[in-house]
């Protein structure tokens, strides 16, 4: 049950990133959570409400995208998505595959901000940009480097 | 109002991962092999580790242990009986060790060198015994080179299937208390199969700290990994 500390880490990271947009309100935080990340979504949502209470993030939605495990099968030479986390076998040939390509992610993908329109236009417009293009890299045992 | 979407692609545990990366560099610079021992409570981590420390010391190796528990310093005192330096980390409710806790204790430890202190450079092996928990420790890198998942024969053969995140993140598995295998009707083949399904190719040691079974292989592995 470490979801509360995970939620608190998200609050810290988002608060830091949102500081670059003064006057903006965070309306949503989108996460990528691997099937092997050892984080339970229900528990995280529950802790999110607690961790954001009384902070500028209060009321922001937490949107979790679960990333299935993807293994690389050396025999078939392809990456394959697995249905669950009970067996790490290539769905094509049935061989065991230790090479994990996805499934341990625990990252903030993006945040959604609402900010006052300087031109006072009534029509809402959408802007998209990338703040930190370099994604962390996972090593062979699934730890971030 | 304008809606703006800002891509972050930022690891939630980035702070821990950065601290762990710094620890890993320190361990490598000091030439110490660091292992992170993880299991459920009661799997026998402390007994197994006490035995390991004792034997390593007898073989002339310099080994020390950091041990995490919510409360009490009982485990550190048990481990210190081996003659090796051992230091307790009390997490006071937190269910895992993180890189910050380990770093702080290593710093404090080196300051007390001499009085049961330990500096990384004076060690060949450092064992970090994690809080007994098969869920949360899997997310927290401590900078270790080898993550060891332990499971005892009394826990059931399906542990790897029930806790795939942890067993999949392990480099090595140790089955403990094999002296109790027969009374527990322990299914060895099934356990080995389950471990291999979750972490294909994982190295497994079948041990008993009580009888010494399997322990020579484990020590040989440690020595081989050290060199």
Q: Name the CATH architecture of the largest domain in chain A.
A: 2-Layer Sandwich
What is the CATH fold-level name of chain B? Rossmann fold
Average predicted local confidence, pLDDT of chain A: 87
Tally of structural domains of chain B: 1
* CATH architectural name of chain B: 3-Layer(aba) Sandwich
CATH class of chain B: Alpha Beta
Radius of gyration of chain B: 18 Å
The CATH homologous superfamily of chain B = P-loop containing nucleotide triphosphate hydrolases
Largest sheet of chain A: 3 strands, mixed
- Rg of chain A (C-alpha, Å): 19 Å
CATH class of the largest domain in chain A: Alpha Beta
Which pair of protein chains has the largest interface, and what are the residue counts? Answer: A-B, 57 and 40 residues
Order of helices and strands of chain B: EHEHEHEHEEHHEHEH
Q: Based on CA inertia axes, which overall geometry of chain A fits?
A: elongated
Low-confidence stretches of chain B: none
Strand residues, percent of chain A: 25-35%
Query: How many E-type strands of chain B?
Result: 8
**Biggest β-sheet: strands ordered side by side in the sheet of chain A:** 2-1-6
